[in-house]
Design brief:
Blueprint lengths: L1 E4 L4 H13 L4 E4 L10 H4 L9 E3 L5 E3 L1 H11 L10 H29 L12 H21 L13 H15 L9 H11 L7
Parallel strand pairs: 1-2
Antiparallel strand pairs: 1-3, 3-4
């Protein structure tokens, strides 16, 4: 397998963490997005969506999108389970994965691309008001997660999951965008210290 990525970006980090938790050895190929390499024929012929990360299987099949890549890896390497084992666990992990992606990770991404300089010349359109509204969503989600984590160890329950990976990468990206965890969010800070100490967090 080969993982096409641009290492500094938060989405590829989500997949690297998933791979690290599974203790897999996957070749990594860098696609320099700021320099436009993702839009060159050499890459778009493989992945017409021109996005990273993208996983190339040994038979040449290309899988894009973080959750889709993770689902493939979970199915082919089920231990440790990162997407739940029982129907209930799988549903809860899916629910919280979607919530942290939509309300935290994607909200920070929208803020970055629309209300900050973002990627500079690569930004074809910006709507500052939309970006600032997304920042408010991210800030509210951080407070919400702090409340939720008063009752459990991890985002989706008592076991580390893909939802924690997405949340950690989202929190770190939020920090890059100067959206920080408030001092009073002690539950979220406890969780953050815990998941940040996992070896996969350095992937």
């Amino acid at each position: 397998m080969k993982l096409y990525e641009f290492e500094p970006f938060p989405n590829p980090r989500r997949v690297r963490m998933f791979i690290a938790e599974k203790m897999l050895d996957v070749e990594r190929i860098q696609i320099n997005v700021p320099k436009g390499e993702h839009r060159q024929p050499a890459f778009t012929e493989k992945n017409p969506a021109a996005t990273v990360p993208c996983l190339e299987l040994d038979d040449g099949t290309m899988i894009g999108e973080c959750v889709a890549i993770s689902r493939y890896l979970e199915a082919t390497h089920p231990e440790p389970a990162l997407m739940g084992k029982t129907p209930k666990e799988k549903a809860l992990v899916d629910m919280w994965q979607a919530r942290v992606q939509n309300e935290l990770f994607d909200a920070c991404t929208t803020y970055f691309h629309h209300a900050t300089p973002g990627l500079g010349e690569l930004e074809p359109f910006q709507n500052k008001d939309w970006g600032l509204q997304a920042k408010e969503r991210a800030e509210k989600t951080i407070l919400w997660l702090d409340e939720e984590l008063e009752h459990r160890a991890y985002i989706a329950g008592d076991t580390f999951s893909i939802a924690d990976i997405t949340a950690l990468c989202g929190i770190d990206f939020a920090g890059f965008c100067e959206i920080n965890i408030p001092d009073e969010c002690t539950n979220l800070k406890r969780w953050y210290d815990d998941v940040s100490s996992r070896p996969s967090a350095a992937a």
